[in-house]
Structure formats: C-alpha cells, structure tokens
Design a protein that fits this description.
mainly alpha, two-stranded antiparallel sheet, 99 residues, elongated, 3 helices, binds zinc ion
Length: 99
C-alpha cells in the first residue's frame, strides 16, 4: 500500500501568524503556527526579553532569511516589526564598530 502524504487527518492547518497553509511538523502546531513562525516567535521573545546583544551574526541572518521565506511564499506581513528590530540591531552594531 502506498503511503499518501495528503491523507485526511495528517494535520494540515493555516498558520495563525503568516496565514500560510502548513503541515503539522510538531513544533508550532500546538500554537497554531507554522514551523518558521514558531522559530521567529522564539527569536522575537528573546529580543523582547532584552537578549538582542546575544544574537549571533548567524542568527540574525537566519531571522532575515526566514522572514523572506514567509513573505516570498505569500505570507501576511506579520514579521515587519521583528525585521525592523533586527535591522536596528545590525545598525547599532555597525555604529559601535562591532561588525
Ligand atoms: Zn507562519
């Protein structure tokens, strides 16, 4: 018997954040988020908790790539604030001569 990945009940749902249709991968499903938004929400929480100075260059690049991925797949522009914050963090680091 062939395994049908699109069998009813495999947990396809609409992400409550970006509005994209997504598959239940375990991570964000509990919160109704796609895995990308789930990861972005984690970063957003760290920034809001004041840990922006601990974000590595790789993490910043990852955030930007994930936001671009959401937007290029037709997601709602829910991550503009996070993107702006990340850009501000980059500008701050450049101004401090850390980059
Ligand atoms: Zn999403």
């Amino acid at each position: 018997m062939k395994f049908n990945r699109f069998t009813k009940g495999t947990g396809v749902y609409t992400c409550g954040c970006c509005g994209r249709r997504t598959r239940d991968t375990g991570d964000g499903a509990i919160n109704g988020l796609c895995s990308t938004c789930y990861d972005l929400a984690g970063f957003e929480n760290s920034i809001m908790d004041g840990y922006q100075s601990e974000l590595t260059k790789n993490e910043i690049q990852l955030i930007i790539r994930m936001v671009q991925k959401v937007y290029s797949n037709g997601g709602q522009r829910e991550w503009d604030a996070l993107l702006n914050q990340v850009v501000a963090i980059c500008e701050e680091r450049i101004a401090m001569g850390e980059v």
